[in-house]
Amino acid sequence: MTYLPKPRLHHPELPTNELGFTHRDYEGAVSTLCAGCGHDSISAAIVRACFELSLPPHRIAKLSGIGCSSKTPTYFLGNSHGFNSVHGRMPSVVTGANLANRDLIYLGVSGDGDSASIGIGQFAHCMRRGVNMVYIVENNGVYGLTKGQFSATADKGAKNRRGVANSDEPIDMIGMALQLGATFVARGFSGDKHQLVPLIKAALMHRGVAFIDCISPCVAFNNHEGSTKSFDYVREHNEAVNFLDVITGRDEITADYAPGTVEIVRQHDGSLLKLRKLADDYDPTDRVAAMHFLQSHSARGEIVTGLLYVDPDADDMHGYLGTVEKPFNEMNENELCPGSAVLEKLNASLR
Ligand SMILES: Cc1ncc(C[n+]2csc(CCOP(=O)(O)OP(=O)(O)O)c2C)c(N)n1
Ligand code: SF4
Ligand SMILES: [Mg+2]
Fold first, then answer.
1. Are 119 and 93 a contacting pair, CB within 8 Å?
2. 33-53, pLDDT tens digit by residue?
3. Angstrom distance (rounded) from CA 350 to CA 131
4. How many whole angstroms from 217 Cα to the centroid of ligand 2?
5. What percentage of residues in the chain have a pLDDT greater than 90?
6. Smallest Cα–Cα separation from 130: which of 210, 185, 212?
7. Alpha carbon distance 124, 188 (integer Å)
8. Mutate which of 30, 34, 214 to test ligand 2's pocket (most atoms within 8 Å of Cβ)?
């Protein structure tokens, strides 16, 4: 057996959501990660976000690559579709699945090794194509599964457990996502669920590619003094730019905020992102300003968290390509393969 199923205990008092499901209906198998691993906190935040949004579990597809982080889809959304792909290849599998069926909600979970090292090309093209998905990188700065080598997101000068300093420049995945055209870009911290759960909810409501870089300390290999991805370092250097509330279109919308301290962003589906601003001059809809903000804080050793950029009117890959709306698995043979006469006509129109 490669996983431990959770015992099905009866809890009659558990709160239910609009679909009548409890929190337990969004959980998965028992985690086999190290006790205290940040990745488990992110799994818990995903469970909470999907439960609170009342998402039908069978309409969600969770996909991952290889790594401790990529194992985590086994530990959440046990009633959803799942695909554990090859190291660094989750983005292309999601892209294909999304092209075949746009009706599912796609959640890609990856690691910093998976996405910033071996899979960086796949990550880049997924961002620039605008695949409609939530893309979470559980970022611990190491290859946890293969025993703690520096990954491409480890900061230059950060020390490993033996005191050896990393000599390479880090890749900031937030900076890349902004530059590559991602339409929702956020950073969270596994140790701050009050910030992370709303970020995941907002990302799930977003049309287009929603990227969350989530700092997730590896307690086994990268949680010591000198590591810039340790719990202590992130807590001390966390610069939250805003805090988010998500109000879905179904709820009554009220304006109970003090002017100047809250920014409201309405997304395409009517959901409202209510941003409590901590930095007075921060505008989350200005991509260039977000890049500048990120760089200037990073130069001071600060890790900016929160919703850094959102384009509320974003489109996605289907909109850019003008694809058919119907999922392939709902088409009959004639629709999927309309014959050589139709192909000839199509080719002629392109000559
Ligand atoms: C093609 C290929 N190369 C290398 C490996 C070995 N490998 C497995 S997981 C991993 C790194 C995982 O790091 P990360 O994505 O950061 O996940 P973490 O374990 O830190 O959560 C590597 C190099 C592999 N499985 N496949
Ligand atoms: S090795 Fe690190 S990343 Fe992997 S489960 Fe343990 S703490 Fe988590
Ligand atoms: Mg890692």
1. no
2. 999 999 999 999 999 999 999
3. 26
4. 8
5. 84
6. 210
7. 20
8. 34
Is the four-CA dihedral 205, 177, 96, 319 of positive or negative sign?
A: positive
**Residues having C-beta closer than 5 Å to ion ligand 3:** 111-113, 140, 144
**Two tokens at 330?**
């709902």
- Residue 21 to residue 179: CA distance in whole angstroms: 39
Q: Which residue has the tokens 């982080």?
A: 69
Name residue, tokens 């205990």. Answer: 9
Residues 45-94: pLDDT tens digits?
999 999 999 999 999 999 999 999 999 999 999 999 999 999 999 999 99
Give the atom of ligand 1 at the shortest distance from the alpha carbon of 69: 21
Cβ burial, residue 13 (10 Å; 0-12/13-18/19+):
exposed
Ligand whose nearest atom lies closest to the CA of 147: 2
What would the two tokens of residue 118 be? 């071996």
